[in-house]
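Here we describe the complex-level prediction in full. Unlike the single-chain runs in Section 2.1, the two entities below were treated as one system.
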Amino acid sequence: MSAVASAPGKVILVGEHFVVENEPAIAVAINLRARVRATKVEGEGVEVRSRELGLAQVFRGDEPRSSPLYPVYFAAKVTMEYIGVESPLRVEVFSDIPPASGMGSSAAVAVATVAAVAKALGVKLAEDEISRLAYRAEEIVHGKPSGIDNTISTYGGAIAYRKTEGFLRLEADFSPIRLVLADSGLPRSTGEMVARVRRLKAKYPRVFEPLYHAAGRLAIEAGKAIEAGNFRALGELMNVNHGLLSAIGVSNEVLERLVYRAREAGALGAKITGAGGGGFIVALCEKGSEERVAKALREVSSRVFVVDVSGEGVRYEE
Amino acid sequence: MSAVASAPGKVILVGEHFVVENEPAIAVAINLRARVRATKVEGEGVEVRSRELGLAQVFRGDEPRSSPLYPVYFAAKVTMEYIGVESPLRVEVFSDIPPASGMGSSAAVAVATVAAVAKALGVKLAEDEISRLAYRAEEIVHGKPSGIDNTISTYGGAIAYRKTEGFLRLEADFSPIRLVLADSGLPRSTGEMVARVRRLKAKYPRVFEPLYHAAGRLAIEAGKAIEAGNFRALGELMNVNHGLLSAIGVSNEVLERLVYRAREAGALGAKITGAGGGGFIVALCEKGSEERVAKALREVSSRVFVVDVSGEGVRYEE
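The structure predicted for the assembly as a whole is:
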């Protein structure tokens, strides 16, 4: 018995970092997806294979935890525990989402794993069950994740998230725009960036309080702009948001170069996406202008992706 | 009868742009100066000569207003009207301050002109008189200037300025630091930048209100850091201030490159100084590190100045 499920990656449009202090953030699902096939097999344990990592590993009990595939196994394990059915399995991962890019690769793999494993064992889980189980696997990877990634990967579309208030689905038609993502080539270190921002904020609370307040209001305005289909306003707000990320110390020369090249090539807005310090920038482009922006970015970035916002969350495949 | 006076240029350390909306800003005088010699002559009118511009022009009545030397003549004229002594004059301008750089060249020339002209005609003006008369010449150049430039050029040192509250002298010892200034090579257009920021602020008032509030508090914290001699904190606050300038839309790729090169070369802080869009960046450097920073900046800027903060305002010379 075999089942295949897939789930999308995500991009944070506004609010990263500020979300840690309970300001709202907005994320969208994109049309890069992780696909997982779960198959009941004879024998023992769970074999996890990753096409992209070129790795295979058999897990039994809670071992080996050091494997980079352990989070996938963990997602399969908590799913079997939750549905009360255990079986030897093979779990195969195929992902279009660049790993360690801030595009939610690990959450998409977790979401697709949960859905595929349950279905292979004869259980169709509801979306909220899938999201919650995937969150547990995300905790293994990220410590204390915000929950944005597993939520957006499960439901698709666009969501506004606030720590104490949870998620709000944004009703929006993203067909007029595409996103261009460009890699700085610099390694991301989310934990280090978050710690650096926390130190600076603790040192200058009287400055950072209104600054965070501005970021929160910006996310609310951005949500309104999305629901109104006002992508020109969304772009302007993304530019302002980028400046606030620069203010809290997570930008650098390479990221700035990418951001300004994208704006000069005609993007409606461009900013760091994710923790900064490295990783990707995202440019919001009216359809028809995305290739010009992508071309300008390819001159200074070795990895550029042109993606659509996707309404589609987790789904089963044939 | 001849008299020579000189006055310093200035650098804005924090608060430019935000000062327009009544947030505080901090400026310091630097050891680049404008020198003016005023000489009573036979004949008619006022002849103005500029060594740097390579120009000479004789003015009579209110003509010719189109001359780039007219503001110098105007400063001489209002001074003679104020002291009630009129005479044919030669006014010679020598300035180390790069013009149109945001370093207050025109105000320094105006301040030195007022002082030199009055003294050549036998009157020694008080500092506040000099500053007020120079302000009138600045109005000819800039429309409605903040008054920062003529004030700092007259008094020297460091001042905090707020539109509705005027000027406050900061007591500070700047001997541990030097400033490195680097030209983006892009033309400044203060009026255009101010108009652009005003449009964006009017469009997103709920975002910009707390953002300006953050900038205001930042200037207050920066003032405290200066008075405490805590230049590490001042540098961090300048970096945050730079991000806020990026957020309001006055940065670009060239300015960002200069800012990050300076920080990476060891500056305590680096930011746009002045209206942005072009013009200069300023880097705050501990003494001993300024040459490393200047060297890094010379690789990407054709004009780099290493300057000291100067306690000396307008003075008479032999």
